[in-house]
Amino acid sequence: MGNRRQLSQITTMVIHCSDSPNGRANTIEDIDQWHRERGFKRDLKLAPQWQPQLTAIGYHFVIELDGAVRPGRPLQESGAHVTGHNHDSIGICLIGRDQFTQEQWESLRTLVQSLSDPSSPPHLNIRTICGHRDLFKGKTCPNFDVADWLLNGCTPPRANILPEVRQ
């Protein structure tokens, strides 16, 4: 269950993948169901009006195949996405395993830039942007090197771009 936190406590952004087949149009509702089945729970008392239909989602944002950025947990509620780091991090999940649509890449870049800009709301203090695998050894998620992606101007590695998907 998530705990209330101050936005000033958030210093890390963690990028994840859903580990679902590339190109399969899963949604934030699917992930909420998967997390419910794993025993995750949100504390809906912390923000009762914020996505009340999502009772288990561990991520703060999910980026679907069409590039839609879907909000999950409110930023004021700690996530359930990386053991030992939920108290000070935001979880962002890309739908897919190791290839993501151009729209997802563009949305990820925009979201990361927006959240890491201290002069823009919600005025976070992001100091670290990394992949799940960088905080939890043995994981490969999100199946690309987030540090390299950032160093290359948020240009996705060619191998991680999903060929056009028909929806």
Helix count equals 4
Any low-confidence stretches, pLDDT <50, length ≥5?
none
How helical, in percent, are the residues?
Answer: 10-25%
Q: C-alpha Rg, in Å?
A: 15 Å
Summed over residues and divided by their number, the pLDDT gives a mean of 95
Broad CATH class: Alpha Beta
Task: Give a brief rundown of this model.
The protein is α/β, with parallel strands linked by helices.
Which tags fit this structure?
five-stranded mixed beta sheet, single chain, 5 strands, Lysozyme-like, Amidase/PGRP_sf, 167 residues
Description:
The structure is a single chain. A five-stranded mixed sheet has the order 3-2-4-1-5. Strand 2 and strand 3 form a beta hairpin. The mean pLDDT is 95. It is of the alpha/beta class and 167 residues long. It has one domain: Lysozyme-like (3-Layer(aba) Sandwich). It is 21% helix and 13% strand. InterPro entries: Amidase/PGRP_sf, Amidase_domain. It holds the Pfam family Amidase_2. It is an enzyme of class 3 (hydrolase). This is N-acetylmuramoyl-L-alanine amidase.
Layout of SSEs?
Layout: E1 12-17, H1 28-37, E2 61-63, E3 69-71, E4 89-94, H2 102-116, E5 128-131, H3 132-135, H4 146-151
Parallel strand pairs: 1-4, 1-5, 2-4
Antiparallel strand pairs: 2-3
